[in-house]
Amino acid sequence: MSQQTSARTPTPVDAIAEEWMDTQLDLFPEYRVFLGRPGREGEYGDYSPEGSERAAAAMRATLAKVEASVPQDEVDEITRMDLERELRLGIDKHEARFEQRDLNVIASPAQGLREIFDLVPTATVDDWRHVATRLHNLPAAMEGYLETLREGIRTGTVPAVRQAREVRAQADKHAAPDGFFAHLVEDARAGEDPLPESLERDLREGAREAAQAYARLSAFLAEELAPVAPGKDAVGREVYELASRDFLGATIDLDETYEWGIEELARMTAEQEAVARRIVPDGGVAEAVAFLDRDPARRLHGTDAFRRWMQETSDRAVEELSRTHFDIPAEVRRLECMIAPTQEGGVYYTPPSDDFARAGRMWWSVPEGVTDFATWRELTTVYHEGVPGHHLQLGMAVYNKAQLNTWRRNAGTSGHAEGWALYAERLMEELGYLDDPADRLGMLDGQRMRAARVVLDIGVHLEKPMPGSTQPWTGDDAFPFLSANVTMDEESVRFEVNRYLGWPGQAPSYKVGQRIWERVRDELRRREGAAFDITAFHKRALDIGGVGLDTLQRALLG
User: Fold this and answer.
1) SS3 for 164?
2) What is the spatial distance between Cα 328 and Cα 134, in angstroms, rounded to a whole number?
3) Which of 89, 231, 293, 349 is deepest in the core (most CB within 10 A)?
4) How many Å apart are CA 100 and CA 331, to the nearest integer?
5) How far is the C-alpha of 128 from the C-alpha of 120, rounded, in Å?
6) What is the side-by-side order of every strand in the sheet holding 360-364?
7) pLDDT, averaged across the chain
8) Is 363 helix (H, G, I), strand (E, B) or coil?
9) Count of CA atoms in the C-beta half-sphere (13 A) of 446
């Protein structure tokens, strides 16, 4: 079993990283909620053009300190390399006016200003007072955001009309009298106790103000932004290259990656169809899916049974893998599988607290009305979110707090995190955990979707020729293409495609990240030959923490 190393003496490079972490929390106090840090409760950052300039100035000042620093050991070398990468990227994005086009259906201030309420504590009267403060502060944050979008209109840096239309629909829901904010405060209580009447009035007034702020967002999108927004979804090569660097923490050849994506999609499709024929000899993927969904032996009834299955599956993987391919410390072996309090669909992971008093948790948000679960679809997801996926990856970052500064423990990119999780899924297949054709079909369903996203995302935004055609991609082509490569309902496909069209570079980071993780492992195996130790590779790679993928490659391959 691993022994936690003694605390490392902080260096001047660590001090710069810690200072940068504190600077980010000063610029955007709501990040404290994500990290569970007290202080400045109820405050928002400044989303106005002036706020963006202050953030850029802070990045430039910190970059100068990083460039002047002298690393004292290998940990410092990696910190310096990755912090410099992050700061340069942030400056480049600011100079390209990224904040002026920051509007999409999933991860822009239009969602973030509201989503923070999903995480704020609400157990005590003081917690609810902070909620009231945040509700009252939301309109000013929204006005700053609208100022930035107006500046984008002035400079011609405008998101596509599709995003304006879709986000307006979201804003209308929040602005409604029976929308999110009204429901948030409707039954507010501190534990079992009612709130003081004055606080209840303050909450209702704050909810009304917050809803009105979203009404102003809706009106702005309809009256000011949509009339000048481009009909074309493509952002073009210059913007896409920056976005790809952001999500991967790496610079890739986009044209080569597009061609690889087409080949990878063909491989995933052929592999999935071959597995489907093992399930239904005369059928294809659709017939195999229908057959498995009718099989009562592969279904669980009720969320309690589903949660127990998740926990048993996770516990077994932790126990067995810790003996073979991973060095898993005792603290990290505890993973709690939970049914989420929301009913929005999807699965997510939350890491353990710094002292491991709160365990890492895998959350399944079960949509309203769903009571049956197909284990063949979900087995690979347990490995993706749990062990050897996100829980092992992020749990090790917490475990290594004696060696890693706060910024290193909380840094990272989508390519590193999601690439590792897809790497983990394929590794579990290699280790025999997906030998059942049904379970393997479930894994391939996700792998095929991720490959399709590489083709779709790069294809649309760079207006590449569609596979097998000389015609360039458009946003409208994305819907039938994704539908042909996933087993999703129409509404889910629509949301997914709108997400890709408005959030360029993020969707490919999963599969491209997996490709880079596998390439690093295979290159080390080639170099080291018979001396290569997969357990040692996994430990060394995860001990680095959530760095960009260029940093990961340089740290492991030189």
Assistant:
1) helix
2) 40
3) 349
4) 43
5) 9
6) 335-339, 360-364, 347-350
7) 94
8) strand
9) 24
Closest CA to 230 of 325, 156, 322, 330: 156
Closest listed residue to residue 315, CA positions, set 360, 345, 284: 360
Cis? peptide before 467, omega within 30° of 0 = no
Tell me what pLDDT residue 487 has.
Answer: 86
Rounded CA gap, 503 and 497, in Å? 10
What per-residue confidence (pLDDT) applies to 3? 46
Q: Return d(Cα 317, Cα 330) in angstroms, integer.
A: 14
- At 402 the pLDDT is 87
* Token digits of residue 490: 């129409």
- C-beta atoms surrounding 41 within 10 Å: 18
Q: In this structure, which amino acid lies at residue 55?
A: A
Backbone φ and ψ of 45, nearest 5°: -75, 180
458, 254 Cβ separation under 8 angstroms = yes
3-state helix, strand, coil in the chain (%, to 5): 65, 5, 30
Short-list 504, 541, 498, 497, CA closest to 519: 541
Q: Is the model's pLDDT at 201 over the cut of 90?
A: yes
- φ and ψ at residue 484, rounded to 5 degrees: -75, -10
The amino acid present at 369, given as its one-letter code, is G
> Residue 529: which region, alpha, beta or left (left: phi > 0; alpha: psi -120 to 50)?
left
**What are the start-end ranges of the H helices in 322-435?**
375-385, 390-399, 406-410, 414-430
| 1 has a pLDDT exceeding 50 | no
Three-state secondary structure string covering 485-514: CCCCCHHHHHHHHHHHHHCCCCCCHHHHHH
In angstroms, the CA 51 to CA 141 distance is 10
Structure tokens at 27: 């610029």
| Cα 556 from Cα 548, distance rounded (Å) | 12
SS3 30: coil
Q: For residue 370, which phi and psi values (nearest 5 degrees)?
A: -85, 120
Residue with tokens 């910024």: 407
Kindly give the residue spans of alpha helices, DSSP state H, lying in 69-124.
74-95, 109-115
Q: How far apart are CA 428 and CA 443, in angstroms?
A: 10
